[in-house]
Amino acid sequence: MTDPATTASTTTPALSIVPVEVPEGANVILGQSHFIKTVEDLHESLVGTSPHLRFGIAFCEASGPRLVRKSGNDDELVELAVRAAQAIGAGHTFAIYLREGFPVNVLNQVKAVPEVCHVFCATANPVQVIVAETAQGRGVLGVVDGGSPLGVETEADVRDRKQLLRDIGYKL
């Protein structure tokens, strides 16, 4: 029998759209990494950012027992991350769900984890993951993060954007 992992295929991959649940008040970070150490290192990077940050992490192994590895400090967010990882089902991908903090507060720490190869998105918007499936397995081609633009900001929109950043404490 031919090993699909070592044999080139001319078969067109099957594409699917996987919706990822993002509940009200939560954010999700989706990415790709390598190595079983990912879950532990992501956990350490997140727990050190804020004592208030609540999070759940799930990581899809791509070899060996190919388990969904999980960690976090909030059972509901861990379960959301596991469900997202299972639905996506692509090797070496991870899902991080956050509450009491935002991706902007942790994204550099996540990207600095040595195992992290790529971050697909960091958002509170509805997300769809575009997945390709081959004989070897599944891979993420990209994501659809929220909706398409409806226009270009006006001067009033610029003022509102700047004020919002000050109102939520991100600008002086």
UniProtKB/TrEMBL annotation:
InterPro entries: Adenosine_kinase, Ta1353-like_sf. Gene3D superfamilies: Ta1353-like. It comes from the Bacteria. It holds the Pfam family Adenosine_kin. PANTHER family: BLL5354 PROTEIN. This is Membrane protein. It comes from Intrasporangium oryzae NRRL B-24470.
